[in-house]
Amino acid sequence: MSIYDQQLTALEKDVTAMKQDIVYKLDDTNSAVTILKGVMGTLAQDVKAMKGEMKIMESQMKTMESQMKTMDLRLEGIDARLATMGESQIEQGQAIKDIKRRLDGQDKKLDGQDKKLDDQGKKLDDILALLKGGRDNG
């Protein structure tokens, strides 16, 4: 065998080894690509599901926002009523003070009248005593 034949045989062996190595690497790459496709498909499904859930959450948030606006309006109404009630309580407090002042004045008048009645009662007792004393003498 000539040197060229030997070199050709060695070269053919190297080419065959390289072909086998390339085929092995391509199979390995194909497996990795297949795995990546599966992962990407799963991720795409997850993203799609998340988008659907996000739309539901958006709808719920809008509903809650609307309900909160309604609650705000109701609370404003309650605040207005409470303010009115506060003003009424102030007016009622003043009216109660006025009534108390009048009643105190009436109490003073009645105390004065009680004193007058007591004085008149004493005078009547004195008159009765004098009348009794006059009868006993007569």
Describe the protein's architecture and organization.
This protein is an all-alpha fold and 138 residues long. Helix content is 98%, strand content 0%. The chain has one helix and no strands. The chain is rod-shaped. The protein starts with a helix and ends with a helix.
Features:
138 residues; mainly alpha
Write the layout of secondary structure elements.
Layout: H1 3-137
Low-confidence stretches: none
- The computed structural class is mainly alpha
Q: SSE string, helix = H, strand = E? A: H
Helix content: over 70%
Beta-strand portion reads under 5%
Question: Would you summarize the structure shown here?
Answer:
With 138 residues, the protein is mainly alpha-helical.
